[in-house]
Design brief:
CATH superfamily of the largest domain: Glycogen Phosphorylase B
Strand content: 15-25%
Shape: elongated
Structural class: alpha/beta
Largest sheet: 6 strands, parallel
Radius of gyration: 20 Å
Number of helices: 12
Helix content: 40-55%
CATH architecture of the largest domain: 3-Layer(aba) Sandwich
CATH class of the largest domain: Alpha Beta
Length: 323
């Protein structure tokens, strides 16, 4: 099939949506399809559209379905679609969901945010990650806790740094953060935090290889987001065997499971500080996190993501044989 894969442009090529779309393009090409990756739909013929982000891709989906009403659209629902725009700007978001023939979510609890009438179209494809090229070797000089994600409001990006301030003077915890500041204000805040918080260092936007090196050195990773569609950094941490401390939100619970022992309430600096202290002082706690994460790790294997896309496309070919 000829597939057009729409992913809106972001401030960096390493946004979660762009990284996911690039990986899916590789999967679809491995399955034997011709894939055109674009930020918008230019009207060229295609047998299938795969669109990332209901709200941002709304115009592209509308144009494609107007031109090719009998050809399928697969829509991947982002976190901002189902946890923000579906309430704050519902018309384009719901219109995209109505036009799509299949909806793809990235976490197991996303169905709770999807209108009941559209849930039969919904499936979950967990994002995958490769294992580290070499065995993980956590730092011996400090208890390194990584924070991986761009600095933007929804990520609550300095929560781990603020929690580290509450640790005892004897603590060896060090917060290492990577990710681009989405606004100058976030850059100013991160730089100010470095000047006043000796436990915190922000590296800025870095290549994927540097992210994997940081994971290899990490004793744990913190994801403190206010909402998530299904963060690929959790897949990366699971593949690397790095325990995760996560905000208790559907997007994280839908990946790590309801019984995962490493949650803290959204925005609760003190609760996160207690988890960091427990991680440092109690080897049994780190072991519990590791075992719980290992039970979830098979969800994030590349072969599983590949098989999910193969099954989805096979279903569409049966439903739309003229595509």
């Amino acid at each position: 099939m000829r597939i057009v894969l729409i992913t809106p442009e972001g401030p960096t090529s390493r946004t979660g949506n762009r990284v996911a779309a690039s990986r899916w393009a590789r999967i679809l090409r491995r399955l034997g399809h011709r894939v055109h990756l674009a930020a918008d739909y230019d009207g060229r013929p295609a047998d299938l559209m795969v669109a990332v982000h209901a709200w941002r891709s709304a115009a592209a989906i509308e144009r494609f379905k107007t031109k090719f009403p009998e050809r399928p659209v697969v829509l991947q629902l982002s976190g901002t679609d189902i946890y923000q725009y579906i309430d704050s700007d519902p018309e384009p978001t719901l219109r995209s969901m109505e036009l799509a023939d299949r909806l793809v979510a990235l976490n197991d609890l996303a169905w709770r945010a999807v209108p009941k009438r559209l849930r039969p179209r919904l499936g979950v494809i967990h994002q995958s990650a490769d294992r580290l090229p070499r065995p993980r070797r956590p730092s011996a000089r400090a208890v390194v806790v990584s924070v991986i994600g761009h600095l933007r409001d929804v990520k609550d990006p300095l929560r781990a740094a603020e929690a580290a301030r509450l640790l005892p003077a004897t603590s060896r915890v060090r917060i290492e953060q990577v990710g681009r500041a989405y606004t100058p204000a976030w850059a100013v805040r991160a730089e100010a935090e470095m000047k006043t918080n000796p436990r915190y260092y922000w590296h800025g936007d870095v290549p994927r290889a540097a992210v994997r090196r940081l994971l290899a050195q990490s004793h744990a990773m913190v994801i403190s987001s206010l909402s998530e569609g299904g963060a690929n950094v959790i897949s990366e941490a699971a593949a690397a065997g790095v325990p995760v401390l996560a905000s208790r939100i559907d997007g994280n619970i839908g990946l790590l499971g309801a019984d995962y022992p490493g949650y803290f309430p959204v925005g609760d600096t003190e609760a996160l500080a207690r988890l960091l202290q427990k991680l440092e002082r109690e080897p049994s706690f780190a072991a519990r996190l590791g075992k719980a994460l290992a039970r979830r790790a098979p969800l994030f294997r590349p072969a599983r993501e590949f098989a999910a896309w193969r099954g989805l496309l096979a279903e569409l070919l049966r439903r739309f044989p003229e595509g």
